[in-house]
Amino acid sequence: MTTKDTKDTGVTTKNTGMTPNLTPMFTPEGVVVIGASRQSGKLGAAMARSLAAFPGPRALVNARRPEPAEGVYASVAEAAAHTDGRLDLAVLCVPAAGCADALAEAAAAGCRAALVCAGGFGEAGPEGEQYADALRRVVERTGIRLLGPNTSGFFAPQLGLTASFVPAASGLPAGDVAVVAASGGVNHALAFDLADAGNGISLGVGIGAGLDVTAADVLEHLVTDAGTTAVALHVETVPDGPRLVAAVRRLAAVKPVVALVVGRSDVGEFARSHTGALATSWRTARAALRQAGAVVVDDERELVDAITALSRVRLPAHPDPGLGIVTAQAGPGLLLADRAGTDGIRVPELTEATRDTLGGLLPPLTYQRNPVDTGRPGETFAQVLDATAADPSVDLLAVYALTEPDSVDVASAAQEAGLGVGSPAVVVVAGPHEDVVEQRARLHKAGIPALTGPTAAAGAVRALVTDARQRARAAVAGTEAPATVRQGVPAGPLDEDSAKTFLSSLGIRTPVRIACATRTEAHRAFERLADSGQPVAVKVLDAEILHKTELGGVHLGIRTPAELDTALDAIDAIEPGGRRYLVEAMAPAGVDLVLGARRDPVFGPVVLAGLGGTAAEALADVAIRLAPLSVAEAAAMPDELAARALLDGWRGGPVLDRAEFGRVAAALADALAASGREVAEIEINPLRLIADGLIALDAVIVHTGAVAGHPGQETDKENDHAQA
Question: What CATH number does the domain located at 591-720 have?
Fold first, then answer.
């Protein structure tokens, strides 16, 4: 994980001017380049070359070397006066120190949007921050929308608009995929990769420092862009988590969003020298975007495969779509089926009626239950595709075949079978490069995603299924209101007994316990609790001690008064003295979870669930949700854990009641929300699953300003014990 210094990147400034939308930027009537140059190595020269193909009004400004006869003017006002049409967009190719004045000049001349490519602002230290502040003031005063600084620009191929200092971007094909990237370099890299995979670009935007226009702004702009069917999102910096989530949620409701988040490892110093880094954990950012409806991927290759599919096909919302596989070569089909199983995608057995149909189309020795192995494909290939896709248990078809002109034309067979929007499918065609490119182009024209191999197809299938599942969950969640306990945490600090008392008030079960002020009271408590014949736990009771074990403040399995005295002696030896004690009944053995609600610095209240103990921390096996959340949303969290089998009766163990877990998690989230900013986090670790349900064995509530651990990490190491 990396951290973000807001001074390095600039926090989004709310635009209060007269131009709240981004149409003047991305669909300008005319463009003016400020700082145009004749020297080929200069930024202004590169930008002028890139914009040369723009079909609308275009003007060049160079205050030092104006040449009006050649269309280079001394000011934006002069350029506007000599240009037919409105100059909406100003492209600033001047050093950081001169950008604010140039921006003000452009706004005064009627420009409503501007692009600043230069670096040397917040990422360059105090002097650069002064330049950034000057830009902010112009934006606030004039209402002009500003993209950048520190970006290589943007491009809209269908308009012939390449506002990028990478002239090669002018060769990108027009299409219906938009790229919104934190980095201008990533914007270009993804666009070229998407084009190589047979996709066209509707808009590609590099956000850069995000001083005014942020990713959320561009995503909101794309909601109503009829020329965009899918959006690739690259995230490095999140200046406003809730706004980004709201924008993704709104966009994903009408067109798919595929997101790639930077920050899996510590790249903080490098990121700060670039445009910034996440001020939240990589996992939290991914979880937030996923909850908002984005398909989250691990790398750029997965992103390209996902977009290739989702820009052409989108499954109806479905909690568990079934995948049919037809392969003309058994080995690649096995790879597809194996990957589907690993990804948790259902590959149902085909119905008897479908198998009967296939039996009349295929040789008898081929496998026909799903996957369907055709052997060397022949003239019945299209009918095989049609029959498999029509099976009632199949919601998506994946097809693999080599280009074999003497045997079958894959693209023709797919179209004959009616594959495409009405019958969702992804197709892999392998063979000589020229043949594959030709087949892919025909398939794409028919609205059928064509991929380059089993791994790519598996990624596309996973994206399509994930998108359908997430929209199904969102539909269910939308019918349920968040939990409404609305009971805030008492004023702190709270010791373990007080914290557990509060949990009990939320309906969360806790062990029987007695808080004791003296050794005499501790012995009386022991006598009461030991009557059941079960051992007890004795702990130091002090709100200031979060890690009791390290200080000798936790003693387990106490069965006799002598053992109790030994435990009390150890607790009394902790400095400073005057300790209180907690005598508590021990819980049966079970499976330990950690459940916490905390305030994320970027996204606000979040809930985290995972397996308890140090192993879970090392494996980072956690599920995260933004709060508040409904019981149904919370109940789905355990199913995201890699070790979820442990919660379903593993080797005769207890079975987690998802509804009970959902109620506990939703109540915790609501309690944090009801407490306002007075409470930083609430954590139960462990929340033990035993035969008759869940029980909170320890609780820590941290008020704002206090020293706190983090949900998912050990808050109290005695909780690794097996309280049995």
Answer: 3.30.470.20
